[in-house]
Amino acid sequence: MSNASVLAAGADDSRLFGLEYKWLVVIAVIFGIFTSVLDSTIVNIAISKLQAVFGASLDRIQWVSTGYTLALTVSIPIFSYLADRFGIKRIYLISSGLFVAASALCGLAWNLESLIFARILQGLGGGALMPLATAQIYAEFPPAERGRAAATLGVPILLAPALGPTIGGFIIEYADWRLIFYLNVPIGIVGVLVGMFILRERRSPVVRPLDVPGLILSTLGFASLVYGIAEAGSKGWQSLTVGGFMGFGLLCLTLLVIVELGTSTPLIDLTLFRDWNFTFGNLLTWTLQIGLFGALFLLPIFLQSLRGLTPVQAALVLMPSALLTAFMLPIGGLLVDKLGAKPVIIVGVIALTLTSFALSHLSLQTPPLTLQLWLIGRSVALSFTLQPAQVVTLYNVPREALARATSLLNLLRQVIVAFGTAMLSTYVQNQTPLHYAHLAERVTPTSPTGQVIGQLAALYQSRGLSSLQAYAAALRVVGLQVRLQATILAFHDAFLLTAAIVACGGLVALLLRPAQRRAGPVAKAEPMMME
Q1: Backbone φ/ψ region at 87: left (φ over 0), alpha (ψ -120 to 50), beta
Q2: pLDDT > 90? residue 292
Q3: Residues 490, 499: contact at Cβ < 8 Å?
Q4: Reported pTM
Q5: Roughly how many angstroms between the first and final C-alpha of the chain, as a whole number?
Q6: Smallest Cα–Cα separation from 23: which of 458, 272, 333?
Q7: Per residue in 387-412, pLDDT tens?
Q8: Could you read off the pLDDT of 444-457 as tens digits, one per residue?
Q9: Which secondary structure element, helix H or strand E, spans residue 385, and what is its range?
Q10: Residue 253 — pLDDT band, cuts 50, 70, 90?
Q11: How far does Cα 211 stand from its chain's mean position?
C-alpha cells in the first residue's frame, strides 16, 4: 500500500517518514501560507517600478495592491462554506492551484489591465490559504499542543514580511520585475503536490445550504469598507469617496449581522462571539496586528525617506530581527503549552509596548546597534504574542467549526490591518504640519534657529547674492530642516500611538480565560467526516 493510502486510511496517529500526521499537515500547508504572505509584501516594493513600466498614474497602479486585497477579503467567507460543503482539503488545494496559476498570469501580464485582473484572481485564490491552513492544523492538534503548532505556523507568517522587501528589492534592482510573481510558481506547485499526497479530506458532517443574502451583504460590505479604508491613506478620512464607501460598507455589515443572527445556516457564524475567548482573543489580535504592521509600515518609510537608505538597505536593517522572531517562535510555543497562553501573552505585550515606546525616540542620529536592540526586543515580544493570541482565540472552538472560525478571524484581521495602516499614514500626514507650525513659532531673531538664518544669509550675501536673495535662500534651507524635524516628530507620535494601542491589548489580555476542559480526546469528541 502506498504512503498516501496509508495516510488516507489510517488513524490520527499514523506516521510517514517517522513524523506524526499532525506535523505532516504543518509541512503540507506551510508552502501556501508562505507564498500568500510573501506575495502581499513583496509586491508593495515594486509599485514604483510597475508605474514606470506601464506608464500609469499612481491611482491606477495602486489597483495592483488594492485589487488583490479586495478579492482576498471578499473570498474568505465563501471559502469557509465551500470547505464545509465539499471538503477542506479539496478547497484548499483548488485555491492553492488558483493562486499559483494567477501568479504565472501576473508574470505574463502584457499591460496594466491584465496585471490587475491576474492580481484579483490571485487574491481570490489567496483568501483560503491562511484560514484553511490554520483550520487543518488546529483540527489535528489538541489544545494542550497548539502552542507549538501555532509557533510553527507563525514562522512563515512573520518571516515572509521580512524576506519580501529584501527579495523584492534585489529583483527590482538587478533582475526582471516579473520574477516577483514567478517566484510563487515553483513553491506553490510543490505545496499543491505535497498537499495532494499528505492531507486527508475532512468536511463538516452537516451540509448547510448557501446563505445567499449573507454572501451578497458580506461581499458588498467588506469590499466597500476595505476600499474606503485603503483610499483614506491617500485622500484622508474627510474625503467624500472614503466616507461614502465606508458608510455603505458599514450599512451592509449592519444588515449582515441582522441577517446572520436570524438564520440557522449563516455564511458567517457570528455565534462564535458567544465564546469569551473568541471575542477577547480577536480584540487582542487587532491591537497586536496594529503593533506589528504599524512598525512594518512606518519603519521602512522612516529609514528610506528620512535616513536616506535604499529599499534594499532598509530591508537588510529589518531582516535580522525578523530572523530572530522565526527562531524565538518555537520557544514561545513551548512556553504556551507549558505555562498557558495568558501569562506568556502578558509578558509579550509588556515587551511590545516598551519597544514600541522606544521607537518613538528614533532619530536620524540613533546608532544602528541601538535600533537593532529595539528591534530584537520587539521580535521576542512578537514571538510571545501574535501566535499565542490565535491559540487563545480558538481555544474553545469545536473541531467542526474551525474552518468558519479561522475564516472569520482572518477576515477581521485583514480589515484591521488595512485600517491600521491607513490610520497611521494619515496620522503622520496630519501631525507633520502641526509640528511644523509649532516649530516655526519658536523661530525668532534671538532664537538659535533665527541666528542660523542670519549667519546663512550673511554667507550667501558674501558669495554675491543680494540681501533679499540671501535671506530667502537662508529661509529655504532652514525651512527644509524644520520640515524634516516636524516629520520626525510626527513619526514619533505614530510610534507612540502604536505603543498605546498595544498597551490597551495588555488590558484585554488580562480578561482571557483558560481553555475549557473537554472530555476525551479532541479528535473523538469533535467528529468530522473523513474520506
Answers
A1: left
A2: no
A3: no
A4: 0.80
A5: 17
A6: 333
A7: 888 888 888 888 778 888 888 888 88
A8: 777 777 777 777 77
A9: none
A10: very high
A11: 28
Average pLDDT of 123-145? 85
What is the DSSP-derived secondary structure letter of residue 263? Answer: -
Please write down the HEC assignment for all residues of 447-505.
Answer: CHHHHHHHHHHHHHHHCCCCHHHHHHHHHHHHHHHHHHHHHHHHHHHHHHHHHHHHHHH
Residue 437 grid cell: 507650525
- Report the alpha-carbon distance of residue 227 to residue 348 in Å, rounded: 32
Contacts of 256 (CB under 8 A, 6+ apart): 214, 217, 218, 221, 268
Would you state the pLDDT for residue 236?
Answer: 79
The answer to whether 295 and 325 have CB atoms below 8 angstroms apart is: no
494-523 pLDDT, tens digit each: 999 999 999 998 899 998 887 665 444 333
In sign, the C-alpha dihedral spanning 63, 423, 341, 353 is: positive
Q: Which residues pair with 203 in a beta bridge?
A: 529
Of 141, 445, 443, 397, whose CA–CA distance to 282 is shortest?
Answer: 397
| Amino acid letter, residue 392 | V
Q: How many residues in the chain?
A: 531
Per DSSP (E only), the strands in 262-381 are: none
Comparison of pLDDT for 527 and 263, the residue scoring more: 263
For residue 432, give the H/E element and its range: helix 402-441
Torsion of CA 366, 370, 375, 379, to 10 degrees: -170
Residue 20, beta-bridge partner list: 15
Q: What is the CA radius of gyration of the chain?
A: 25
